[in-house]
Amino acid sequence: MPRVAVGGTFDPLHDGHRALLGRAYELSSDVVIGLTSNDLARNHPHPVADYSERKRELERYITDHFGVSPEIITLHDPYGAALTEPFDYIVISPETQPVAEKINELRMKRGMSEIEIVLVSFVLAEDGIPISSTRIKNGEIDLHGRLINDHEQR
């Protein structure tokens, strides 16, 4: 069975994240989800929920939608287990493509095989701009990319 890597901060868990996770579980039920540690999440431009809250939400979503108990590991750097463990696929968004390419570069230097990169396009909000956690936290859109009227009136 293929082994799949996918990673992120997942705060809040929005339709773009759901597309990534959906693609990962289409490829295999053996998915390893790297969840950004609190320390690494401090680099985000907005406040991020605590690791335990994000992990709980991910576990609930994966169990409810894919019927499996997810394997979630803590990411202390952008690469995680992808530099040391065997994976067949890494599921990414355009935003994280440079990280996946760097992972493969570092794997090759270590004598490991490359991981096949599976690119999932951005999920667009109703205004045609990608859904992002930053836009949600700024009050522009909701988790599904619907515009929030208060923002339009500002």
Strand order within the widest beta sheet? 3-2-1-4-5
Structural class: alpha/beta
The count of β-strands is 5
Helix share, percent: 25-40%
Poorly predicted spans:
none
Average pLDDT across residues?
A: 95
Taking the sheet with the most strands, its summary is: 5 strands, parallel
Q: At the first level of CATH, what is the class?
A: Alpha Beta
Radius of gyration: 16 Å
Order of helices and strands: EHEHHEEHEHH
Jot down its keywords:
17% strand, 154 residues, 5-stranded parallel sheet, alpha/beta, Rossmann fold
Description of the structure:
The chain has one domain: Rossmann fold (3-Layer(aba) Sandwich). It has helices spanning 15-27, 38-41, 51-66, 97-109, 133-137, 149-153; strands at residues 3-8, 30-36, 71-75, 89-92, 116-119. The model has no long low-confidence stretch (mean pLDDT 95). 30% of the residues are buried. The chain is α/β, with parallel strands linked by helices and 154 residues long. The chain has a five-stranded parallel beta sheet, sandwiched between helices. Strand 1, helix 1 (15-27) and strand 2 (30-36) form a beta-alpha-beta unit. The protein contains six helices and five strands; from the N terminus they run E-H-E-H-H-E-E-H-E-H-H. The N and C termini lie far apart (51 Å). Helix content is 36%, strand content 17%.
